[in-house]
């Protein structure tokens, strides 16, 4: 997980940085990735905002979940919304495995995978998901992910939490994560 966290820190997404690290049964790293634009798409030329809708009522929240009756369709949404362009961390981790099989592997992700990533993880044979944050647990995309994973019996486990925000972690914190994973593995093997 510490490698996934480090990887996430390379993301240019101002609202949510995500990292993923795929390891095989021998704990060899097979691929890593973070959420970013496709190769060659410059970070300063494409949008990093979200354009779910425009809201002209008092709440003005602009969030995905807003049910305001006055919400309007955003014009030129495709020019304003990062979701058209960003490659998710899990996709990049698989692509960065350079054709090595990820079947039977574990993916460590800093955020619970969305439904699109979940489809990709299932299709590539990932056996286990360990996630740190589930901050989008109320989104339909996350609910759909969990339904698929439960249905096909791909295990997903929440990583042990440190009493710290993921992005304020020091090297010492990252070491503590590695130690806690080693302890968990030891007790699972005994
Ligand atoms: O599975 C995922 N993998 C992944 O890389 N992401 C990225 C895509 C976006 O850049 C960001 C989510 O942004 P936001 O929290 O503003 O909706 O996280 C998001 C998810 C699931 O939400
Ligand atoms: Zn995703």
UniProtKB/TrEMBL annotation:
SUPFAM superfamilies: Cytidine deaminase-like. Its cofactor is Zn(2+). Keywords: Hydrolase, Metal-binding, Nucleotide biosynthesis, Zinc. Pfam families: dCMP_cyt_deam_1. Residues 1-148 form the CMP/dCMP-type deaminase domain. The keyword Metal-binding applies. Its EC number is 3.5.4.12. Belongs to the cytidine and deoxycytidylate deaminase family. PANTHER family: DEOXYCYTIDYLATE DEAMINASE, DEOXYCYTIDYLATE DEAMINASE-RELATED. This is dCMP deaminase. It comes from Clavelina lepadiformis. The lineage of its organism: Eukaryota, Metazoa, Chordata, Tunicata, Ascidiacea.
